[in-house]
């Protein structure tokens, strides 16, 4: 059974600082990995999708890396802004999507 | 990007009644749809996987008679919470996967409150 762990559970940083969010998973036989953003009481917004054959994906200030062999992915958010405050979830796709518990980010103005 | 519409976004119902939640893929055909439940400050828990035209596959511990799933077409799946109880109050989210696999697309979720 796939187990997905996200560390840290919560993170508070001043505006402008770079964010590093970690995700680890136990079974490396995956199709892809996705990072999502969730605002309180809202649904999920997909941020980045990394296929199992890729090492990283970038979109604007976001960069996600994937090391499938070690079961790790990292989401980097450069120059954080208050609007980046949300919970970030990683999901591993081995046909079913298995989610981590998320990292709740607070960016202080 | 692909759009998944989930309706209603919020619903309050009385104990003992049934509630239906719809999940529609608006611009693609979804051979597979997933239903998740999210408890406060917890991760999303997969409840069941539905494939169009066949019975849903439920995860261990999920009552299939309580959470009825119907994937009637390639663009519509419904989750019916039958005889709802206060402990069924939660945030339910669906996702749909296009036929060409890749990522999954999520609805906005439904906040169910049973009083």
Key traits:
heterodimer, A: 109 residues, mainly beta, 6-stranded mixed sheet, 5-stranded antiparallel sheet, 11 strands, 0% helix, B: 115 residues, 7-stranded mixed sheet, 4-stranded antiparallel sheet, globular
Description:
The complex is a heterodimer of chains A (109) and B (115). Chain A is built from no helices and eleven strands. By secondary structure, chain A is mainly beta. In chain A, strands 2, 4, 5, 9, 10 and 11 form a six-stranded mixed beta sheet that branches. In chain A, a hairpin with a 2-residue loop joins strand 6 and strand 7. The radius of gyration of chain A is 13 Å and the shape is globular. The mean pLDDT of chain A is 93. Chain B is an all-beta fold and 115 residues long. In chain B, 0% of the residues lie in helices and 55% in strands. Chain B is built from no helices and eleven strands. In chain B, the strands form two sheets. In chain B, strands 2, 4, 5, 6, 9, 10 and 11 form a seven-stranded mixed beta sheet that branches. In chain B, strands 1-3-8-7 form a four-stranded antiparallel beta sheet, with no helix packed on it. The mean pLDDT of chain B is 90.
Helical/strand content category of chain B: mainly beta
Kindly name the structural category of chain A. Answer: mainly beta
* Low-confidence runs of chain A: none
The biggest beta sheet of chain B is recorded as: 7 strands, mixed
Distance between the termini of chain A: 41 Å
**Sequence of secondary-structure elements of chain B:** EEEEEEEEEEE
Low-confidence segments of chain B, given as residue ranges, are none
Mean pLDDT of chain B: 90
Strand element count of chain A: 11
Sheet-strand content of chain A, in percent, reads over 45%
Q: In which range does the helix fraction of chain A lie?
A: under 10%
Helices of chain B, by number, come to: 0
